[in-house]
Amino acid sequence: MAQESRGGGRRPLMQMAAIAVVASALGVALGLLIEWFPSQASTQASTIDTLYNVLIITSVPIFVLVTAVIGFCVWRFRVRPGEEDEDGPPIHGNTRLEIVWTAVPAIMLVALCTYAFLALQDIEEAQADEQRIQVIAQQYAWSFEYPNPMGGDPIRSEELYLVEDEPVLFDITALDVIHSFWVPAFRMKRDAVPGLTTQLRVTPNRLGTYPVVCAELCGLGHAFMRQNANVLTRQDFDAWMAEQVKAAGGGGAPAGEEEGGEAAAPESAG
Fold first, then answer.
1. What confidence category does residue 160 fall into, taking pLDDT thresholds of 50, 70 and 90?
2. Which residue has the higher pLDDT, 165 or 10?
3. Phi-psi domain of 40 (left: phi exceeds 0; alpha: psi -120 through 50; beta: other)
């Protein structure tokens, strides 16, 4: 049969392998050169970016290899004129090959999942002296609540204000539908679910203003559910907080302290 003479010899296979190697190298280089994310603005961002680079380095060659084999088979074993009614030669299974192409992907998946798990454990580890901020999502706006240093009702802000190099623990919830709290420059993301409080830890390490976006389709106005995250120095943040306390009707030293810095006597109940 005409098809029995095809596919023989090593030259076509070597050509396919060479093309796959070159395409893999180009694909990996391109994937690493592309700026997939904005500039890093948190201590967690570097770990996340490294994880993405590892996934690119491992996934691109696999994609190219599979595509090369499929393309080679389509080209090499295509039906030629006059062969429309012929059958291809019978092919029996290859146990060794089947074990290899099952075991290698399984090992790679376990290794990548383990690496991703360890990276996640590292970036989500609790830090000392975390500032706690409540994140409230609703169609189609974000709001943020801070503990009031004077006591009483929390300080509420439509924009997010953070301190450079100080860890933050976000308590995230939603009032209506599922949203997703995401600051791309921080890389970290967490769903906001009605009736539940999810948590997210971030340590911003770069001064500036960064967009806060909703990464979960939440309705017609989803694309407009944006806000700013402002990373300030401790001095600027304290000045901002003092303005918020004053606007909320507070003033003076934080609760529990008198003007001289000594503990104030607790107020009488009732």
1. very high
2. 165
3. beta
Tell me the residue type at 60.
V
Q: What is the pLDDT of residues 198-214, one digit of tens each?
A: 999 999 999 999 999 99
Count of CB atoms within 10 A of residue 51's CB? 18
Q: Are residues 149 and 178 in the same domain?
A: yes
Residue range(s) defining the domain that contains residue 105: 10-78+97-123
Q: What is the CATH number of the domain that holds 193?
A: 2.60.40.420
Tell me: do 170 and 197 sit in the same domain.
Answer: yes
Residues 238 and 141 in one domain: yes
pLDDT tens digits, one per residue of 60-119: 988 888 888 888 888 877 888 877 777 777 777 888 888 998 999 999 999 999 999 999
Domain shared by 114 and 137, yes or no:
no
Residue 174 lies in a domain: yes
Domain end point (choices 123, 158, 178): 123
pLDDT level of residue 9 (50, 70, 90 thresholds): low
Q: Are residues 137 and 242 in the same domain?
A: yes
Q: Looking at the predicted structure, is the pLDDT value of residue 130 above 50?
A: yes
Task: Let me know: does 32 contact 56? Beta carbons within 8 Å.
Answer: yes
At residue 122, φ and ψ (nearest 5 deg) are -70, -45
